[in-house]
Amino acid sequence: MFTFPIFAVRKIIDRGKTDAAKSGGFRNPYYGFKPGQGEIPGVWLVGDQGVYIMSNGKLPHGERPLVVYSEECHPIGNPDWFHYKQHHFGGDDGIQFIDAEQLIPLFDRNLRCTHLSVQLTETEVSLSLIAR
User: Fold this and answer.
1) What's the rounded Cα separation, in Å, for the pair 84 and 31?
2) Could you point out which of 12, 55, 67, 132 has its C-alpha 20 to 30 Å from the C-alpha of 95?
3) Any bridge partners for residue 125, and if so which?
4) How far apart are alpha carbons 6 and 116 in whole angstroms?
């Protein structure tokens, strides 16, 4: 399970929309293997050096996307991040696209919740909200 503050997820989505408006759309998370899929507002859940979400708007040359690490899998804040990532994300690097149209209504219906929880299995991504 990976958790992210809802306010941070909203910032990631907003940044992606801003970048897309300035730079001509959204990046394809599937490296062109699935043209047109995932080129909409959302976030990328990335397993790499830790696990984080990032904005998906196209970027001007040299700019970087906005990134927020999960509370459980930050390489600086958690000395066990590598083992946690292997156990809950897998050993390989990867990207999962999460559509903003799935997230925003979920957030808006549950105003008392503070964090998004993302759980991965081999076949699906499960989203839930929690209050801390």
Assistant:
1) 26
2) 132
3) 120
4) 6
**Beta-bridge mates of residue 103:** none
At 32-53, the pLDDT tens digits run 666 666 689 999 999 999 999 9
Residue 53 and residue 37: Cα distance in Å, rounded? 18
The per-residue pLDDT for range 50-104, each reduced to its tens digit, is 999 999 999 988 899 999 999 999 999 899 999 999 999 988 888 899 999 999 9
Average pLDDT, the chain: 91
Instruction: Please report, for the chain, the start and end positions of each structural domain, with discontinuous segments joined by +.
Output: 7-110
| Residue written as token pair 């599937």 | 30
53 neighbors 4 (Cβ within 8 angstroms): yes
pLDDT(31) > 70: no
Tokens 């990631």 correspond to 12
Q: Per DSSP, what are the bridge partners of residue 95? A: 46
* Residue with tokens 């559509």, as numbered in its chain: 99
Looking at the DSSP assignment, which residues form a beta bridge with residue 93? none
Would you state the structure tokens that stand for residue 18, as one six-digit string? 């801003």
